[in-house]
Amino acid sequence: MATLLRSKLSNVATSVSNKSQAKMSGMFARMGFQAATDEEAVGFAHCDDLDFEHRQGLQMDILKTEGEPCRDEGAEPPVEGDIHYQRGGGAPLPPSGSKDQALGAGGEFGGHDKPKITAWEAGWNVTNAIQGMFVLGLPYAILHGGYLGLFLIIFAAVVCCYTGKILIACLYEENEDGEVVRVRDSYVAIANACCAPRFPTLGGRVVNVAQIIELVMTCILYVVVSGNLMYNSFPGLPVSQKSWSIIATAVLLPCAFLKNLKAVSKFSLLCTLAHFVINILVIAYCLSRARDWAWEKVKFYIDVKKFPISIGIIVFSYTSQIFLPSLEGNMQQPSEFHCMMNWTHIAACVLKGLFALVAYLTWADETKEVITDNLPGSIRAVVNIFLVAKALLSYPLPFFAAVEVLEKSLFQEGSRAFFPACYGGDGRLKSWGLTLRCALVVFTLLMAIYVPHFALLMGLTGSLTGAGLCFLLPSLFHLRLLWRKLLWHQVFFDVAIFVIGGICSVSGFVHSLEGLIEAYRTNAED
User: Fold this and answer.
1) DSSP per residue over 172-197, as a string?
2) pTM here?
3) pLDDT tens digits for 374-405?
4) Could you tell me which residue ranges the Amino acid transporter transmembrane domain spans (predicted)?
């Protein structure tokens, strides 16, 4: 009996040892190390079979427990950015309740019961992102760039349209049957795939940090522009720009209580239409002064010190790459995505170029950071009040998105979370979670008070995160994931965009930072 028991234990130990060796060899093979012998190659294949069977078993378990109302206590959530080993090009489904499912991502990522949007509706969303309030700073970019600034508006539109398309291309891969299938669902998933297998979550964290910075800076810009517009609309009142910013923030404080954007989204269309009306009013006033246009003031040379700031301003006005994967996943006909990107960016390029040129020709060297500050007093007050209302109603959108990213990254339930969850078991926001949201609102106020320079902040943000998310990362991801399938001209375009984007990003960031330091010193002396 003892001999039989020892024999069984020996067989089990040998089997476990063989499986472990095969598992380790397979892991090193997937990391890039080649098999040295036929025995190792057999071990790799055996490991792949074991790995596939194990994951198939896990998948069946997941399907069996999918309808259960709760999970076992102590169960860990899936690791963020976990790259599942798949056969046949199948894509892993996002966890239940994920943001992508909430957004109704299409295809293999859930959302089959969500209503899809047409290409026109998708184009309207893209237009809202790239035709927002920040076009008010484009005439200031022409002031320092002249005709080169106009060329840059066209160039940025072309590049952002191209990088948006290649970013969506990174969502797809060919399966064993040669069919192109959607295997990723977000910008973060693309970044994680590029850094796998050694650093499977690094790329997602970098994208999340860049996204948070851009969203928070957008909130700060809304507070800055609100204070600036109100101050210049009522210069006779004994209220400073900082005081107007504080008043605007007091109005925005209820944003900390937001659980969803249903109450805010209904104003989105109205705000966008109001903004187009304002742009038309500004252009109409400029056309009324067409006889006095200063064509001779449009320069063929640039201000070397201030033009890089203009690059950041122009790039920031085109940023939309963050939400493009979700938008494409929600389209009824994803094949129409390229056409939609073409006409939206062509329209944006034409409208932005005309608006910037006409406004600059009207005021020439007197062009201010926010172009509506150049309007006569009677018109300026009306236009600026509408713009302030639009800014205040637009603030909750990036604020809520920033809060969601922070909560998802740092405050989710589970052992991998850095901090406890912000919500209780009943779904109510905890007091300390509400305090953190209020602190974020106050932080945007403090930044707006101490750095009240709309164009410089816009240039800094565009150079830091705008260029990275729109130029650098999409081209890098495209090269990393689709290198073997790219033609030579595609490789050339990606490398050229990465190099030019890197130079513009560094130079714009440095000069914007220098401009902010100089402006801060000037304010301190005054």
Assistant:
1) EEE-TTS-EEE---SHHHHHHHHHTT
2) 0.70
3) 888 778 888 888 888 888 888 887 888 888 78
4) 116-512
CB-count exposure of residue 389 (10 Å: 0-12, 13-18, 19+): middle
Return the structure tokens found at 88: 């046949």
The token duo for 304 is 């070397």
Residue 82 has pLDDT above 70, yes or no: no
What's the CATH code, domain 134-412+422-523? 1.20.1740.10
- How does pLDDT run across 220-230, given as a tens digit for each residue? 988 998 998 89
Of the CA atoms within 13 Å of residue 357, those in its CB half-sphere come to: 18
Predicted local confidence at residue 392, as pLDDT: 85
Domain chopping of the chain, boundaries: 134-412+422-523
Distance (Å, whole) CA 40 – CA 37: 5
Q: Are the beta carbons of 154 and 308 closer than 8 angstroms? A: no
Q: For residues 277 and 125, give the distance between their C-alpha atoms in angstroms, rounded to a whole number.
A: 18
Give the CA count within 13 Å in the CB-facing half-sphere of 111. Answer: 25
Residue 110 · residue 93 · CB < 8 Å: yes
